[in-house]
Amino acid sequence: METQNKIRIAIQTKGRLNEDSIKMLEEAGIYLVKGKRQLVSSAKNFPLEVLFLRDDDIPQTVADGMADIGIVGLNEVMEKKEEVDIIQYLGFSKCRLSLAIPKSESYEDVSYFSGKKIATSYPVILKDFLKEKNIDAEIHEISGSVEIAPGIGLADAIFDIVSSGSTLVSNRLKEVEVVTPSEAVLVATPGLSDEKKALLEEMLFRIESAERAKGKKYILLNAPEEKVEEISNMLPGMKSPTVMPLAEEGWVSLHSVIDENVFWEIIGKLKAAGAQGILSIPIEKMIM
Ligand code: PRT
Ligand code: ZN
After folding, report:
1. Residue nearest to atom 1 of ligand 1 (CA)
2. What tens digit of pLDDT does each residue of 236-279 get?
3. SS3 228
4. Are 190 and 84 within one domain?
5. Distance CA 114, CA 138 (A)
6. Would you say the CB of residue 95 lies under 6 angstroms from ligand 1?
């Protein structure tokens, strides 16, 4: 069957994960057929089918095998407790799940929460945490605007996603316990077929190559021949730098790959050593 040779990914229809999920696929050279907001789409140049879902539905869809893989927040994976394999941490949509209380309250330790009413959209994760800490508290599950609960007398505290912390501040709350960090993860159905595993491997290889290139620059410079060794030592490249003769006698061109953040550190040293015409170029992909 033809569909056997395709892999199906579930990604968020709209919301915080959508754009970065599509961007990650594009960096891996996989472009989606653009249409209206349909439920299913496909890739132009990779045997990939895309299922657009609410993030809450992604863990179960992947666990059931309706989608082979999915991109979702680790927080949803932890909350839903569906059986999925976490294949890769993706480094975007980073946040944390934290307990917060009114700013005016004094706080010593987690025993503060004994007998308190805590509002959250993540009752499962919270329950596990309280159990581990031996705290008996009341969990009040609400689906949105958790942060307003203490202000309107609906709860004593909240357990919610925190990113910059500004939502807490504007609701006069303070973060007192970080329960778990979260970020987008790539999940897969346990027991993928060999064909689908091979497609997943190919995707991972591409994602990694694009990831590796981030923050790296390709740098080119001209230098007097007698300075090649000194300058090479300043350029920790993939292997040793490429050295090519220039038309002008006694001069060479050096090429190397460096971390973006060391670029400004070494630029002065390179110039002092006689380097000229220094160029820094972004790198798209890096295959080791
Ligand atoms: O419609 P659908 O159900 O698909 O989307 P959703 O509304 O449930 O989720 P969405 O798009 O808001 O978030 C998707 C995922 O992004 C979450 O599951 C997290 O893994 C991740 N993420 C990263 C965040 C945040 N950062 C975040 N800041 N999810 C939510 N927030 C909210 C948080 O709930 C709180 O209200 O932002 C507020 C806090 O932000 P700060 O910056 O003020 O601290
Ligand atoms: Zn959701």
Report:
1. 54
2. 766 778 899 999 999 999 999 988 888 888 889 999 999 999 99
3. helix
4. yes
5. 9
6. yes
Query: 15 in ligand 1 pocket by Cβ < 6 Å?
Result: yes
Tokens coding 141: 């599950």
pLDDT of residue 157: 98
Q: Which numbered atom of ligand 1 lies nearest the CA of 146?
A: 36
**Which residue puts its alpha carbon closest to atom 11 of ligand 1?**
15
Domains: count for the chain:
3
First to last CA, the chain: 35
CATH number at residue 107: 3.40.190.10
CATH value at residue 272: 3.30.70.120
What sign does the dihedral 246-272-234-237 (CA atoms) show?
negative
Smallest CA separation from ligand 1 atom 22, residue: 93
Give burial (CB, 10 Å; 0-12/13-18/19+) of 6.
middle
Ligand 1, residue 182: give the atom nearest the CA.
20
**In a shared domain, residues 99 and 83:** no
pTM beyond 0.85: yes
* Whether the CB of 181 sits within 6 Å of ligand 1: no
Residue nearest to atom 18 of ligand 1 (CA): 73
